[in-house]
């Protein structure tokens, strides 16, 4: 039997935090390195499109940071959830596995689905300041797992430009367009 996880690049852990800057300070000291992404804006949302009841669960992020560690290999993300949002969501956002390619995402999704687990696919979505192919699966306790590959890294400026361009293409450009920069996805 081949190792089904052979193509996993890194495990992924996403935490909800009250204050992004305080959390970044703590983890910068703990890991001994700066985050590779650290933003304070609302140009990204969490990509779980709907919860198990079918309700849209996307929420704008006000702060986001990503540590991309080699030793230990870990894709570690912080999502700012101020005030009551933090209290209602708790500290664990989601878990995941970063793989090398879209083919790896598809192969793992097919294997998981063949094992009888329900998956939710998201291909070519803008999420977490990146364009990604992924799928989601929840464990028996409701912990969300995402299996994903990063196709392209995106900046807040690129997301705002993309949202404006999209709004212009559809003929419905409004001042709210930048706030919908990632309405198709993503927080994860």
UniProtKB/TrEMBL annotation:
PROSITE patterns to which the protein is assigned, alphabetical: VOC
UniProt cross-references to Pfam families, sorted A to Z: Glyoxalase (PF00903)
Domain VOC positions: 9-150
SUPFAM superfamilies xref list: Glyoxalase/Bleomycin resistance protein/Dihydroxybiphenyl dioxygenase
UniProt-listed NCBIfam families: ArsI_CadI_VOC
Protein name per the record: Glyoxalase/bleomycin resistance/dioxygenase family protein
Species whose genome carries this gene: Cognatilysobacter xinjiangensis
């Amino acid at each position: 039997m081949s190792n089904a996880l052979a193509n996993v690049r890194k495990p992924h852990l996403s935490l909800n935090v009250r204050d992004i800057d305080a959390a970044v300070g703590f983890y910068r000291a703990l890991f001994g390195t700066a985050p590779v992404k650290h933003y304070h804006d609302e140009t990204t949302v969490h990509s779980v499109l709907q919860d198990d009841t079918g309700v849209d669960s996307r929420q704008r992020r006000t702060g986001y940071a990503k540590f991309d560690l080699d030793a230990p290999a870990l894709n570690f993300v912080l999502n700012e959830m101020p005030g009551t949002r933090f209290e209602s969501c708790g500290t664990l956002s989601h878990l995941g596995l970063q793989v090398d390619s879209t083919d790896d995402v598809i192969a793992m999704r097919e294997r998981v689905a063949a094992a009888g687990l329900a998956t939710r696919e998201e291909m070519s979505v803008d999420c977490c300041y990146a364009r990604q192919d992924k799928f989601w699966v929840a464990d028996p306790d409701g912990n969300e797992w995402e299996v994903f590959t990063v196709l392209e890294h995106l900046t807040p400026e690129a997301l705002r430009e993309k949202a404006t361009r999209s709004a212009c293409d559809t003929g419905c450009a409004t001042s709210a367009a930048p706030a919908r920069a990632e309405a198709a996805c993503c927080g994860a």
